[in-house]
């Protein structure tokens, strides 16, 4: 039987990293930016975002697989309307 992933909120994940290394320069803001850019996958549960803490550690250690960038479509851009 496999162990379930350790899902943590962003503040808790950042605090756990600080417990491992009290002198780390890694911040909660940096983690939020990584999630926003899609470098770290977050799952929304109710009003909270959760990250897989073990996957985060692997990514920060350089063992994580980078997420490929997806090209943006024309949705959300300003387009000319012909009347």
Summarize the structure.
The chain has 83 residues and is of the alpha+beta class. It is 35% helix and 14% strand.
Structure, described:
- The chain has 83 residues and is an alpha+beta fold.
- It has a domain at 7-60.
- It is built from three helices and three strands.
- The protein has helices at residues 10-20, 28-37, 53-60, and strands at 7-9, 42-45, 48-52.
- The protein has a three-stranded antiparallel sheet with strand order 1-3-2.
- A hairpin with a 2-residue loop joins strand 2 and strand 3.
- The protein is elongated.
Layout of SSEs?
Elements: E1 7-9, H1 10-20, H2 28-37, E2 42-45, E3 48-52, H3 53-60
- What's the order of the H and E elements? EHHEEH
Q: Helicity, in percent?
A: 25-40%
| Major β-sheet annotation | 3 strands, antiparallel
| Mean pLDDT level | 83
User: How many strand elements?
Assistant: 3
| Helix-strand category | alpha+beta
Q: If helices are DSSP runs of H or I spanning 4 or more residues, what is the number of helices?
A: 3
Low-confidence stretches at least 5 residues in length (pLDDT < 50)?
none
Q: What is the overall silhouette?
A: elongated
Q: Order of strands in the sheet with the most strands?
A: 1-3-2
Descriptors:
83 residues; alpha+beta; three-stranded antiparallel β-sheet; 3 helices; 3 strands; 35% helix
């Amino acid at each position: 039987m496999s162990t379930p992933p350790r899902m943590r909120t962003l503040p808790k994940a950042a605090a756990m990293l600080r417990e491992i290394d009290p002198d780390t320069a890694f911040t909660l803001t940096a983690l939020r930016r990584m999630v926003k850019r899609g470098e770290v996958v977050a799952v929304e549960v109710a009003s909270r975002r959760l990250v897989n803490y073990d996957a985060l550690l692997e990514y920060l250690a350089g063992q994580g697989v980078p997420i490929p960038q997806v090209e943006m479509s024309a949705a959300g851009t300003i387009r000319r309307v012909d009347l």
